[in-house]
Amino acid sequence: MHIVVCLKQVPETQNIRIDPETHTLVRQGVASILNPFDYFALEAALKIKDERESVKVTAITMGPPQAKDVLIDALSRGADDAILISDRAFAGADTWATSFTLAAAIKKLEPVDLIICGKQAIDGDTAQVGPELATILNWPYATYVKNVEFLDNSTLKITRQTDEGYAVWKLPLPALLTILKDVGDPRPRSYKCTLRARKYDIPTWGVTDLNLDENQVGLKGSFTQVIKVFSPERRKDKLILEGSVDELVEQLYSWLKEQRIPGI
Amino acid sequence: MKAIIDKELCTACGECADVCPVEAISIREEWAEVSDDCTLCGMCVDTCQYDAISLPEVGTGPKKDKEDYKGIWVFAEWRHGEIHKVSYELLTTGRKLASKKGIPLGAVLLGHNLEGMEKSLFEYGADVVYMVDHPSLEHFTDEIYGNVLTELIKKYKPEILLAGGTSTGRSFIPRVAALLRTGLTADCTELDINEEGLLVQTRPAFGGNIMASILCPHGRPQIATVRPKVMKAEPLEHPTNGLIERVDLPEEIFRTKIEVLAEHKVEGPSANLVEADVVVSGGRGLMKKDNFGMLYELAELLNGAVGASRGAVEAGYADSSQQVGQTGRTVAPVLYMAVGISGAIQHVVGMQGSQVIVAINKDKEAPIFDVCHLGIVADLFEFVPAFIKKIKQERGEKE
Fold first, then answer.
1. Are residues B284 and B366 in the same domain?
2. Host domain of residue A138
3. Shortest Cα–Cα distance, B149 to chain A (Å)
4. Host domain of residue B249
5. Which residue of A133, B52, B78, B161 pairs with B6 in a disulfide if CB–CB is 3.0 to 4.6 A?
């Protein structure tokens, strides 16, 4: 069985902010990390490898050359193979162009039985690439998956989270899943795998390797275009109070009363 | 491809080089130069006060006769006999966009035993309700819902499609966009029509720390999802019955490789979070899980629910189902109290629709004070217990 895990390198968004005076993006100390949700995708794949016979896990990522770091991380935790999908022509890709490029990589990696993605990436938070990739491949998919079981070699029983609770589905392989953290904490890097990762020569696939046309990928192959980037608006009519706790308690209470808050 | 510098306009001021996340911009003597490291993220474009930077344009995609696409559609989310409230919020927004463009507003209703369900959609402004009533639509699967909506769009060609950013919408709308080969913008917080008649889709990015406005110039329909409670639902003052279009589709559209074995509803500690009139949320400032106890006490006094920031959830102080924000739930209560929450925009987008926002934080510079209506600069460990005591006292006196 061949499982492909899709990873993404993202900026650590928690630390990105706009300077209130210059209105520019402050990036100082912002590191590039593996998208936190993708750790669970990798863990889900490695768990299947632990439990079943002859499973191969391939980690792939699309990004600039430095995105290789997340693949080294994946190899150090137990992935068997890794492929970097990188080309100048891929720059500016929206979710469609990204999915289209990844689909070409999956076809080159065939046979593939299962693709596992994180539930979303923390930079864009779109949660679109998983479903779009599965659709382009014409594979069934399930999102927000919290549990994966094998009914037999070619059928999965999965539990997916819904807004009201959860649903249990049976789906045939090949299929794509996007995974929640319920699959379990990601395992640490192992000494043996880290040594192997250090020596592992990660192949890079570009437009020509994937038999793609430059017009189908990157910004040229995208449908959505960012026209403006700006800092969120701040409220102006606000009231900020300082003072002793007793005074503040009185002030908040009477203010909430004025606002006719139920319960006050 | 990389960002394009207009050498006539560029003053080599260096602002763009400072914001470039990949350090692809260097400053030459008279202008900025972009290296091949550029990822076309667009950060520099907005920073430049001389309008000297632009991005190359997206491709035109597969040839589509854009003029054939007319009208705005809202996907009305039907779940086990009820229509999700986000559908009314989107119809209200869709109505405003449709009147600005002078085009009709349609609602799409997929499900089983739908008779009579269309009425409420007319009350919120739908001119036409397209209904597909089929036993295979009883349970949601991405495959069937995606295929059916795609067929309807191919048949009736709306130029804009809006859907709720629920677990359902966020899951199957990407399938529709991919099948139709068009663009999709998730979790928009603002929608408008520009001079060219295109849908301007504004959404938070990078964890909500910045906002981005996005167009889909060539793909049709232009598709956007919006989280529940981000827009306001307003029924029409004088609703009229519109047209009902019952659509029969060939049986093969309803075939799927997926079998739904079970569906369960779960009531949890956060079950009423989205519906509650008062939400008290805690952040990393609570320092540990036990300290959330006082928030539960305060929330109970006010008959409210307890939410949490992403930071508090990641630190294990609260359950992920309690998370309010871009990656959690969107709430819009009468009163939202943010306790010990710094106020990253990723959190703010999940609560900014609240009628009254009160922030309690000891850091006067915390960004939460930029979004609240009333800010209390105080140590929460002193303030919250004192405030609980005050409410109890007032009630004691009344009784």
1. yes
2. 2-221
3. 14
4. 66-254
5. B52
